[in-house]
Structures are given as structure tokens and as C-alpha cells.
Amino acid sequence: MADTLLDVRHLVVEYGTGSHAFRAVDDVSFSVPRGGTLAIVGESGCGKSTIAKALVRLLRPTSGSIELDGTDLATMSEAKLRPLRHRVQMVFQDPYGSLDPHLTAQQIVAEPIAVRGEKSRKVQRQKAAELIDRVGLPTSALDRKPPEFSGGQRQRIGIARALASEPELLVCDEATSALDVSVQAQVLELLADIQREQGLTYLFISHNLGVVRAISQHVVVMRAGQIVEEGRTVDLLARPQHEYTQRLRRSALEPGLMTGVKPRHLIRAIAASRAAERKTA
User: Fold this and answer.
1) Which residue of 38, 79, 215, 273 has the fewest CB atoms within a 10 Å radius of its CB?
2) 0.85 cut: is pTM over it?
């Protein structure tokens, strides 16, 4: 379909070989419309992050196809894939471990600009500064290194680095899970603003139904490597059909069953953030 940017069909990813192979992703199919957001949700170990790594080809799929705008990335050689890598970028879960602690923020963001062929150091620095400004960090951040930033600020640098490659698809692998509630809301708002401005397509990996509700239009629910339910986010979360999805929803709504970040608090934080912005606009 002309409005589909990503089309994944019968994706299988196995770790190991032969009788010791473990099938982490088992015959998974989904598509993401251009400019839209699909969320993949499920408990730890269900295969979400394996899918994310396969999409950016950090892992080679065992079988199946990953078509980006009609081009199958799944079976490409590294040589043929290299010029296409910039089209799909990832924002990683760990804002502390995903940035080189020895480089400044400007150097981190400038690196993919140089990789894409920009030879001028001056232009690299200028474009990096523009991106760092775009993600809401001050000019003083340019020459500081990751250990000098908070978790939320580091994740903004990670987003700026991903945007530096001028991607069409941004894969966010639990990109807010390591952040506290108020910072999660800010990062989600930033991602939503960027999507509106640039028309980016997002695939958002999360175990947090509050995040899923806030960021996505469609959702895929996974369990043990397989899709158990999918549909429009608002409908699926309101009226889940599969018992596993129902259990996920109950655990998100009943405080006694919840651990970590409370999704309903996240939604309130997002609403408060939007209200504050309207007052200052």
C-alpha cells in the first residue's frame, strides 16, 4: 500500500542454531502507516526488543521480510544495507549506556552527520547545534559530556543523534522506561512535536500501557514471541479481547498489581504539561 512505510511479514528471529535454537520472534506480521505510530507492548522477554533490533538490522532475521517503502531489508548484505541504514534509526532504552561518555554532546550528534558524507567540520558542528537546540537543550550543553547530564537530558541527546541521520522511521525501544514520570511526559511530548513537524514514522516498544496510550494510534500485543492481539489503541485498551491483554490492562489499572512507573500518573503528567504550554503560549 502506498501509505505504508514499514511492512513486516512472517518475521522469525532465533538465537542459537540447531537443537539449541530459541525462537524469540515467531511468525510476526504487522505494518506501520507513513507518519503514524505503532506500539508493540508485552511483558519482558516476549520478543519486543528482538523485533526492534531486527528492524535496524542489529540482528539478522532467521526468516521473513522487513520491507521499508517496498525494499526488503531482512536479507540484504551489509554492503547493500549500509547506504540505507540512515532511513531507520533507534532510540535506545538506556540513556546512560547508549552514549559515548568521552565525547561531547555536539560530537555525539555530529558523528552521524559526518558518516552521511558531510566533510566540513563547521557544518557538522552547526547542524549538531541546531538539533541539540531542537530537542530542548541549552547552548551550554554543546561542550558537555554525558556524565554531566541527567537521564532525561541524555535521552534528548539520543533523540538528536537519531534525527541527525534524517531517518524516515524511528524505533524507540523502551525509550522512556528509565526516566521518572515527569521526564517521561516531556520526552513523549518532544517526540510527538517532532512527528508533527517532520512527518516521522514511529515504532514504539513498551511494557507501559500509559505510554502506549499516549503515543500510539495502533498497538500490537505480544506474548512469548507471538502476536496475541492487535488493533486501534483506543479500542484495544478500552475493550481488550485476549485474556493476556486483559491481564496487562488490569495490572495497569490496579495499583496493588503495579510495579515501577504508574501509567495513569504519566497520563496526568502529560495533560498537565500540555495545559502549562497552552497557558504560556
Assistant:
1) 79
2) no
